[in-house]
Design a protein that fits this description.
By secondary structure, the protein is mainly α. The model has no long low-confidence stretch (mean pLDDT about 85). The chain folds into two domains: about 60 residues; about 250 residues, Orthogonal Bundle (MetI-like fold). It starts with a helix and ends with a helix. The chain is built from ten helices and no strands.
């Protein structure tokens, strides 16, 4: 074989071998990456199952002693606990479930419109020079510790709410049918104060996710609306909001999930009253998280700690249900948006 031909053959064999090695490395790397992702997913699921199992196992003695459905009443009186199986269950958690729900709902009613409005301003209206500054400032709200929000609520928010509470007592409380939700007296620490603090804590989540969703709206949608003579508001109303609807709903539910489990800030301003349900938002109340935080270290009555684990298990179930509902709603709205476009 000629010397030149031999070099070409050797070069081709070397190139083929290098290609095979590169392909083998790529396949190996892809396999390792896939296995790591699979292991991470399994670890997250396993951690969630382990947490649920731990909380449920710690709550089991109380559930066995009193029965599952015996917790659905509004009397929380650990000092009346007795080992006698015939005694009524003093650990009712209905008022805490109600407190968790009403505080979170009011917080979302306040934060979602404000958060979506701020996100629209940043993504659609704000000058470019100011956009980065506003984005950073809103994201910094998420970095503030919850205890700082609680101190701010005590020192600033509670006194500032007194005029608004007085207005509600004198006007809204007199409306038939809904007046009971605004009846006084207002002592400062209340469901309303906890809801306002919680709404501010949820704002960064709603703003950040909504802003990212608005930024994904295709340019063609905006240009089509402008070509039809739409104003800036009409472009937002007809092109941006319909396309982003499922994302905004997802952001709202993520904020709701954050609100359901908030503990320290809510505990500091809600009043922590365990004496039944306060239907008025100006009254004091408690949430599932706040009663656990308040009483866990001092629980010394029979089945007291175990009943607090029951409250914790109820909070986990409530949060999981909300997240499942959110995923279903977002999936359906996303499918509807895809068909419409």
């Amino acid at each position: 074989m000629p010397k030149g031909k031999a070099k070409e053959v050797a070069r081709a064999e070397t190139s083929s071998l290098a290609l095979q090695l590169s392909k083998k490395r790529r396949i190996t790397g892809d396999a390792i990456f896939a296995n790591l992702n699979r292991a991470s997913g399994i670890a997250v699921i396993a951690l969630l199952i382990a947490m649920i199992w731990f909380v449920l196992s710690e709550a089991t003695p109380s559930l066995r002693h009193y029965g599952i459905f015996s917790f659905f009443h509004t009397r929380w009186a650990p000092s009346e606990a007795s080992l006698a199986s015939s005694s009524p269950n003093p650990y009712g958690i209905v008022q805490f479930i109600y407190g968790t729900a009403i505080v979170s709902i009011i917080a979302m009613v306040i934060s979602v419109p404000v958060g979506v409005g701020v996100a629209l301003f940043i993504s659609e209206v704000c000058p470019k020079k100011l956009k980065k500054t506003l984005t950073t400032l809103t994201e910094l709200l998420a970095a503030v510790p919850s205890v700082v929000y609680g101190f701010w609520g005590i020192a600033v928010l509670v006194p500032a709410l007194r005029p608004a509470a007085g207005f509600m007592e004198n006007t809204l409380a007199k409306i038939p049918g809904v007046g009971g939700f605004f009846e006084g007296p207002f002592f400062g620490f209340s469901i309303l104060a906890a809801s306002v603090v919680l709404s501010i804590m949820v704002l960064p989540t709603v703003i950040a996710i909504s802003r990212e969703v608005f930024s994904t709206v295709p340019r063609d949608h905006r240009e089509a609306a402008i070509a039809l003579g739409g104003t800036r508001w009409e472009v937002i109303r007809t092109a941006v909001l319909p396309y982003s609807r499922s994302g905004v709903v997802g952001a709202s539910f993520l904020g709701l999930g954050r609100a359901l489990g908030e503990t320290i800030a809510v505990t500091m301003v809600i009043g922590n009253s365990v004496l039944g349900i306060s239907w008025s938002i100006l009254g004091q109340g408690a949430t599932l998280a706040s009663v656990i935080a308040n009483e866990f270290t001092e629980a010394n009555q029979p089945f007291h700690i175990e009943s607090l684990f029951v409250a914790g298990f109820a909070l986990m179930i409530l949060t999981l249900v909300v997240n499942v509902i959110a995923r279903v709603i977002v999936a359906r709205m996303g499918a509807a948006t895809g068909r419409a476009s």
